[in-house]
Design goal:
The chain is mainly α. It has one domain. It is built from 11 helices and no strands. It is globular, with a radius of gyration of 19 Å.
C-alpha cells in the first residue's frame, strides 16, 4: 500500500500539482519543440542555447515556489536569508531572456516569422516564470516581516534584476561566475557603481529596464486580481 501511495505521489509531482505549473510546462515544451523543429528543418544549430536559458529562468521560480511551500524555512532567519540570496542571484535569468530578442536576424535557414515566434515564446514563458517567482518571494517576505510596503520590495528587486541583465548581456557574466569568478564580477560591478558617468549608457539601460519590469509585474498582478 505504501509503495502505491508513493507511486501516486510521484505521478502527482510528475504531472504537476497546479494549473499554473501545467501551463508553464506546456510553454517550455512548446518553446523547446520549436528549437528542435528548426534544427530538423534547417540542419543548423541556431538558437540551440535557448532551452538552457529557459532552464536557468525556471530555477528561481522553482526555488521561490519550494520556499513558499516550506513556511518553516521562512520563519528561520539564517535558512531564509540564504535562500533569498541564492534567489537574488538567479532571478535575473528569468528577465534576461527578453534580451534574447536581440538575436532575431533574417537568416536564410528559416522564415523570419518562425524565429520571431520561437524567441517570443521563450521570452514570454521566462517572463511569466520571473513574475510568478517575484510574486512568490513577495509573499514569503510578507510572511517573514509581517507585510512590508510593496514598493520597498518590488523596485529594489527590479533594480537588481536590471543590473543582473546588464551584467549578463553586455559584460557576459553568468550566475555561476558568483562562484567561479567572484573577484572579476565584483570588480566589474564596483566599477559600474563607483564610476556612474563612465557607465551612463549602462545606468540608462538599468533604469529603464527596471521600470519596464516593474510595470510588467504590477500590470499582471493587478489584472489577475481584477479578473479573478
Amino acid at each position: 500500500m505504501k509503495s502505491i501511495v508513493k507511486q501516486l505521489q510521484w505521478r502527482r509531482w510528475f504531472f504537476l500539482k497546479s494549473e499554473i505549473d501545467r501551463v508553464l510546462t506546456l510553454g517550455m515544451l512548446f518553446s523547446t519543440g520549436l528549437v528542435c523543429l528548426r534544427i530538423l528543418y534547417s540542419h543548423v544549430w541556431t538558437y540551440v542555447f535557448m532551452p538552457w536559458n529557459l532552464f536557468l529562468a525556471y530555477l528561481p521560480y522553482l526555488l521561490s515556489k519550494w520556499l513558499l511551500e516550506k513556511p518553516q524555512h521562512i520563519r528561520k532567519k539564517v535558512p531564509f536569508a540564504f535562500m533569498f540570496v541564492v534567489w537574488i542571484f538567479f532571478i535575473p535569468n528569468s528577465f534576461y531572456v527578453i534580451t534574447d530578442l536581440f538575436h532575431l536576424v533574417d537568416f536564410d535557414t528559416a522564415p523570419l516569422w518562425f524565429d520571431l515566434i520561437l524567441l517570443m515564446s521563450f521570452a514570454w514563458t521566462s517572463l511569466i516564470m520571473g513574475i510568478l517567482s517575484v510574486r512568490q518571494m513577495e509573499k514569503a517576505i510578507g510572511l517573514r516581516f509581517n507585510r512590508i510596503p510593496e514598493f520597498m520590495f518590488i523596485y529594489p528587486v527590479m533594480i537588481l534584476n536590471a543590473l543582473g541583465v546588464y551584467i549578463g548581456r553586455y559584460l557576459r557574466f553568468n550566475t555561476w561566475d558568483v562562484l567561479m569568478n567572484p573577484f572579476g564580477l565584483i570588480s566589474e560591478i564596483s566599477d559600474i557603481i563607483f564610476h556612474p558617468m563612465k557607465y551612463r549608457e549602462a545606468w540608462g539601460m538599468i533604469f529603464f529596464f527596471s521600470i519596464l519590469m516593474t510595470l510588467m509585474y504590477l500590470s499582471i498582478k493587478k489584472i489577475s486580481k481584477s479578473i479573478w
